Amino acid sequence: MTAKSLVSVLAVIGGTTVVSVLATAGSAAPSAPPLLKRGEYLVEKVGMCADCHSPRNQRGEFIREAYLGGTTLPFSPTVPMPAWAPASSPIAGLPTMTDDQAVVFLTTGKRPDGSASRPPMPEFRFSEDDARAVTAYLRSLGKKS
Fold first, then answer.
1. What is the distance between the alpha carbons of residues 129 and 139, in angstroms, rounded to a whole number?
2. Tens of pLDDT along 8-18?
3. CA 34, chain centre distance (Å)
4. Which of 60, 63, 89, 109 suits 13 as a labelling partner, its CA being 20 to 30 A distant?
5. 39-60 per-position pLDDT tens digit
6. What is the pTM of this model?
7. Of the candidates 140, 137, 112, which has an alpha carbon nearest to the alpha carbon of residue 43?
8. DSSP alpha helices (H): ranges in 42-98?
9. Which residues lie closer than 8 Å to 116 by C-beta, 6 or more apart?
10. Handedness of CA 120, 128, 28, 3 (dihedral sign)
């Protein structure tokens, strides 16, 4: 299914990037609730989460069975960066966060323990509605083994 999407103004306010999506489209089943379709769009097209959270095969294609299941990152910083995370965590099914914790993380960039995400993970500042959509979509994917 192909459809056009409208993304609202991407603003930088006080050095913080704010993202909001007004209309969404994706490959979620046509019968999927709008919240899941919106979440899928944000994960797949805005956040591009798979780029860091999904392993790839030798041809560079995503390994669908392990999609969003976390992986060793195929890149590293060019300068020393002590906080660098060499691997991404699994996010399919949100195995390490409650829904409320995920919404806080996606709206503030703060992990459940109050610390900031480690690079290269950006400190997203999604709107609360968008964060709830992302959370619902990731939760719907179930835990990957």
1. 15
2. 333 333 343 33
3. 18
4. 89
5. 999 999 999 999 999 999 999 9
6. 0.76
7. 137
8. 50-53
9. 109, 110, 123
10. negative
